[in-house]
Amino acid sequence: MNNKSPSLEDRIIFVLKSIFDPEISVDIYELGLIYDVKIYEKDKVKIVMTLTTPNCPVADSLPLEVKRKVQSIQEIKEVDVILTFDPPWSREFMSDEARLELGLL
């Protein structure tokens, strides 16, 4: 039996999957809003993310929620959330799970 605890990256992804786009009942990870997660020096994280549209109503609050929730992981000391619109988000970024949830499959 393998009792290996989840990696830090797995735990970050788990936290990201607990954050939902308020307009769509799908989490931001499966929606494809997270472009990159990088871990530096074991306790610093950089997350590159986007929004479904540049004028998204949660443009101010969603990146802050991502930062706050990822920073709540015990060994993480610093979280840098970078918001980008390059490339612009599109439905192709969604996971099959998200497409199924939204009836797009």
From TrEMBL:
MIP18 family-like domain ranges (all copies): 10-81
Annotated InterPro entries: Fe-S_Maturation_MIP18 (IPR052339), FSCA_dom_sf (IPR034904), MIP18-like (IPR002744)
A Pfam family this chain is assigned to: FeS_assembly_P
SUPFAM superfamilies attached to this UniProt entry: Fe-S cluster assembly (FSCA) domain-like (SSF117916)
Protein's name in the database: Fes assembly suf system protein
Natural source organism: Blattabacterium cuenoti STAT
